[in-house]
Each structure stands twice: as C-alpha cells, then as structure tokens.
Amino acid sequence: MRTESRPAEAQPRSNRSLEGLVYVTRRAHFNAAHRLHNPDYDDAWNREQFGVCNNPHWHGHNYVLEVTVKGRPDPATGYVIDLSELKRIVHEAVVSKCDHRNLNEEVDFLKGILPSTENLVIAFWKEIEPRLTAGTLHSVRLYETERNYAEHLGPTAS
Ligand code: NI
Questions:
Q1: pLDDT value at residue 157
Q2: Which of 10, 20, 84, 125 is the most buried (most CB within 10 A)?
C-alpha cells in the first residue's frame, strides 16, 4: 500500500519563532556560611579589611544567584534554552554544592579561594559555562544581600 507520509527528517518545517537575540535568566537561592580571611596577612590586617565578615566563628548569607543565557529562539521550540534544563544545570553546578555549606571549607571548586561575592561569581561562571546545553552564558550575578551584588560577564569581558 502506498503512503504519502515521509520520514520525519524530510518533513518540511515552518519557522514559528521570531528572529532576535534574547537573554533568559534563571534565579536560584542558597544559604551558606563563609569567612573573609586572607591567611597571607596577620589577624589585625584581616580585621581591618573585613570587619564583621572576618568573624572567626563564621557568618551566613541568603544568597540569590541569577544566571543569564543569551541566544536566538530555536525555530522548533521557541526557547533559547529550556529553563527547566537551566535550572538543572545551575543546581548541579552550584546550588547542590553550596547550599547549607561552609564556602571556605566544604566546596571543592572554592578550595583556597577567598569567598568574596566577586570571587564567587567568577568561580560559578567556570562551573556553569561548560555545562550549558544551549545558548551562550551572558552573566552570573550573585546577591549577598538585598543591596549588594556582584556580576561577572565572563573572562573575555572588559
Ligand atoms: Ni559575608
């Protein structure tokens, strides 16, 4: 019996997406402890530089992480990246390793790094970027408090 149907790959496809560059963002939360202390300097210098953030008994933050991916909507899905996929990537790369942890002592990719918000966004970029399955990483923004955040636009940004 003859059939008019063709293999799926030969089906004509219409482009149901619009042309344009879009930035999509996933927000995640985690709680973590840290201490700002540079062991290359003495205690007085550390107290002077870091104030209460140098507390030897640690302190915590409710961090808010925003990861932005840029790209053009896929003609078939309309997505730059499936946000459930981005959620999974951010969780695997950062949240699962940092949430309810001591950032100085318990996170493999932060060993020996002073956990300032600035250093954290650079470190998080390095963990997230290689895991992306679509689009291009545009920014990693981390709020340490409601009023203070740092943002990294990647190693080539100037
Ligand atoms: Ni702090």
A1: 87
A2: 125
CATH number at residue 83: 3.30.479.10
Q: Residue 91 contacts by C-beta under 8 Å, 6 or more apart in sequence? A: 28
User: Residue 144 catalytic?
Assistant: yes
7 assigned to some structural domain: no
Average pLDDT of the residues of the chain: 94
The pLDDT of residue 8: 61
> 42 lies in a domain?
yes
Say which DSSP state 66 is in.
Answer: E
Q: Which of 53, 85, 118, 129 is catalytic?
A: 53
Those residues of the chain that have pLDDT short of 70 are 1-12
Q: Are 102 and 58 in contact (CB under 8 A)?
A: yes
Catalytic residue check, 53: yes
